[in-house]
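Appendix B, example 12.
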Amino acid sequence: MRIPCLTRTALIGVISLCASGCSFLFVKGPPAGHEQMRVVSCTDSKTLPLLDAIQAGLGAATAILALTDAGASNTRGSDILSGAGSAVVWGIAASKGYEKVRECRAAKELWALRVLGQGTGEVGPQSVLFEPSEPLKGPLPRRAH
């Protein structure tokens, strides 16, 4: 059974929107006011933004292949549109995801400097030496200058 071009394009669009943007849904940046919090909980892994970037690349490849297709295909226009559209949506999701991860890593580095009085000097997943399982008791320690 052959699915009409417009129906297939709409179906691809709906599936892309429902499945798109792992970073939009699952990557959490640092909470507001994290500078005063005893523990900073956010996403410091680049895995989900990377998956979004891969999906954006696949969408762009689909559009490029459809553009360079010399044959007169009935679906060429819809392939170009759906590929370019998914590349844009997934690309924005990847960009926002990477931004949230950078903010999270910076917030965790600030937390390490503020609470522990030390840091690694770089922002990354190993920059925070530990996160206490229980909230710290008493006032936050001051770093000696």
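Residues 123-130 have pLDDT under 50 and may be disordered. The longest helix spans residues 76-116.
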